[in-house]
Write a structure and sequence with these properties.
This protein is an alpha+beta fold and about 250 residues long. Helices cover about 15% and strands about 40% of the residues. It has 3 helices and 13 strands, in the order H-E-E-E-E-E-E-E-E-E-E-E-E-H-E-H.
Amino acid sequence: LAVGEPSLLLIASLFTTIMIVAFLWNRWALHLMTYTRQFDEERVFVGETAQLSLELANRKPLPLSWVQVDDRFPEQMPPAERKLLVSGIPEVGLLSNLAALSGYEKVRWSYQIPCQQRGFYFFGSALVRSGDIFGLFEREMVVEERTRLIVYPNVQPLERLGLPAKNPFGGRRTRLPVFEDPTRVIGVREYAPDDPMRRVHWTATARTQALQVRIWEPTQEPQLIVFLNVATMEKHWLGINEALLERTISVAA
């Protein structure tokens, strides 16, 4: 304007307009932007595959030429068809996805997560980055919401472990502490030597000409608690035999 050059004035005006548009575009780029993560099942067993769905939604009329999502994944749980990037955090990798979204558009990614190791895993948080269409500015936000996945130990039939399914702890019979309700008679059976006389059903005994006792409905079921000793070495300072530990956990399961 000072030297009276219209071409320079046009270039300066165009550059100023681009800067203003780029600044405003970048300011609203991540407004009303959502990112969700969902498993089809939150609890699986070793050897199964979990289906993971990721959704990125632009809930405003402003289009976005690029949006990048870096999601944190456990290194032990990478997708079957993708490799995780280095995150700089121990035992954590990054799954990176890039998309372009128009106004009110959604994009979805689906991944198969093979579950080869038992554990309690967290996925997230995620870093979402975007900017203006000219590439002059960049903006980012962190989606703190995390998704959990529980992988249970490998469960095998008792027969495969060499234990009978009916009596896994041996053939010795014990009396289980089952509490019965004497007001709830569900049937009769033949008398056994260890049955108390108060259980005798005299009407059924007279009808069958043999001692019969009442069968009462249990009001409380017995509970079984399995305790597992996770010490795999004679001395704790010798470390852990991981293969043996996983085996004993599988047997307990």
